[in-house]
Amino acid sequence: MMKIYSLYLPQFHETEENNKWWGKGFTEWTNVKKAKPLFPGHQQPKVPLNNNYYDLLNKESVVWQTKLMNKYGIDGFIYYHYYFKGKLLLEKPAENLLKWTDIQQPFFFCWANHSWNRSWEGKRTILMDMDYGNKDDWKKHFDYLLPFFKDERYQKVDNRPLFMIYDSNGPLISEITKYFDSLCKKEGFDGIKVINELFEYPSSEINSLNYNYISQPSASRISITNNKNFFEKLKNKIIRKITQKGYFKKVELLEGDYLYSDMLEHSQIFKNKNNIPGIFFEWDNTPRHGYRGSIIKSVSKSCFLNYMDSIADSEFVIVNAWNEWAEGMILEPTEEKSYQYLEWIRDWKDRNNN
User: Fold this and answer.
1) What is the pLDDT of residues 88-123, one digit of tens each?
2) Angstrom distance (rounded) from CA 108 to CA 80
């Protein structure tokens, strides 16, 4: 029976670091609220249904999200986990969930093992550099994770905690995950089950002991760009050019159904049990990047259902994302589309008796 997990961004509360870097009161809602339409028909800003600009430090917000995920067939959240050699960022929502044992929310972590940069304004400045440290630091990291791993809500496969890694090619990642595996065994688990996030389609011959999650829409965009017939299909890729204040501006626009057709072409690779397909519904990161951003127009329900049928035998599917409001990847209800994408997921699961 397929499980559907959704990536979950915990940046909907104030932190000392974000107040310092971005200004007092900054949360993910800051960029969402100030977004502007960049061309006729561009739907910005995205607005939560009933103006529900929640704070994730409020228990009521987490209870609401949990009820919503259960109602519409989302089997768990994948919390982004930011850990920099002992330094934590955006850790409070997960730590609160660990304390709030009455909230039956299945979850696991995705270690976002990348540096934090100030790049939204067109320049790049390192705010928090990724540093893996040494084996003593890895042990401290594991000790932090262990109470989560032991929580009954933390998702496991064959008595192995799931642990997703954003950059599986990062230095020392192989050594760190092997070390975590050995420590898990000492704690009564059968090891750790790592999910490597990939940004290109893997070979169907991969037989790793770990899972490989195909990050969408990144993989399909790369695949299309590398396709030798890409320029023959250029009519399906629209570059919308706009003149504003005397400057030549452009926003990249892609058709969601076109990217889904590419995903369908590659769906055979998911027959390998170690590969986890990803899904998305739309994308718009212009709230963060303005005219340097890109937009993927909403996929149609029929295209989504066809793709889900093609991967119906998969053990897992990962949705990008539950609440990436500033990237336009949102399962939560919006004023524009209400509960539409959640309803599509529920419809498919009901039809397939999942």
Assistant:
1) 999 999 999 999 999 999 999 999 999 888 765 556
2) 9
